[in-house]
Amino acid sequence: MIDLTELRKQLVEMLGKKRNVFSLPSLKKVVLNYRVSEARESAESLTTATEEMMEIAGQKPRLCKSKKAVAAFKLREGEPLALKVTLRGKRMYSFVEKLFNLVLPRLRDFKGMPIKSFDEKGNYNMIIKDQTYFPEINLDKSNKIRPLQITFSISASSKDEAKMLLSALGCAFEKEPK
After folding, report:
1. How many domains does the chain have?
2. Edge-first strand listing for the sheet containing 80-87
3. Helix segments in 16-140, DSSP class H
4. Which of 123, 97, 101 is CA-nearest to residue 110?
C-alpha cells in the first residue's frame, strides 16, 4: 500500500522548497470507463463486462446509457453504452499501485507513458487497449477484448507538478527527445 506521509515527503523534496502540505499536488479520484458497444444486442456480454469491471476496480460499476437517439449509429435513447467507476481513498491508491507495478510492465513494448496525455489542468488520461493485462481477469470467461480508459484527476497547479506526483506514485514516463 502507498504510504501517503512518505509520498508527501518525497514531493516536498522534489519541489525543493518549503510548502504547505495542503498545496502539494494530490490525487483526487481515478475514473475508469469501460465501453460495451455490444450490450445493446446481448445482455450476457453486459453481465460479463460488469463482472470484469468489478474484478478490476473492486467496486460495482455504474451503467451509462445513451441520452439521445442517433440514427446514423443505430442508437436509441436509453440503450446501454458503457460502464463507469469512480475510485477514491484506499481503493484508488490500491488500484494505482496495481496499475503502475503489475499492469503497465506487462504491456508489450512498454517504453513509458506519453507526456502529451496531460490536459491543461494537470489531469492525466490513458487507455489500456486490452483488459486481460489485469491479473484478476479470467481469460476463460472473457468473451471479448475491450479497451479501458483511465482518468487521473489531480489537484496540481501545473502539468509539471502533476507529472511529479504520478512519477512519485510509480508511473514511468517516456523520455523526451533531445
Report:
1. 1
2. 62-65, 80-87, 26-35, 148-155, 124-128
3. 43-57, 89-98, 104-106
4. 101
Tens-digit pLDDT profile for the chain (178 aa)?
Answer: 677 778 888 887 777 777 777 778 889 999 999 888 776 777 788 888 888 899 999 899 998 887 788 777 777 787 778 899 999 999 999 999 999 888 888 888 888 888 888 888 889 999 988 888 888 888 877 778 889 999 999 998 888 888 888 888 888 888 776 6
Widest CA span in the chain: 57
Q: How far is CA 142 from CA 15, 19, 174, in A?
A: 44, 48, 31
Residues of the domain holding 96 = 4-169
Question: Could you tell me if residue 177 is inside a domain?
Answer: no
Classify residue 175: in a domain, yes or no: no
CATH code at 129?
A: 3.30.1440.10
Q: Is residue 97 part of a domain?
A: yes
Instruction: Give the cell for residue 133.
Output: 493485462
Per-residue cell: 106: 506487462
| Residue 63 located in a structural domain | yes
- Is 94 within 8 Å of 63 (Cβ atoms)? no
CA dihedral defined by 133, 134, 135, 141, rounded to 10 degrees? -90
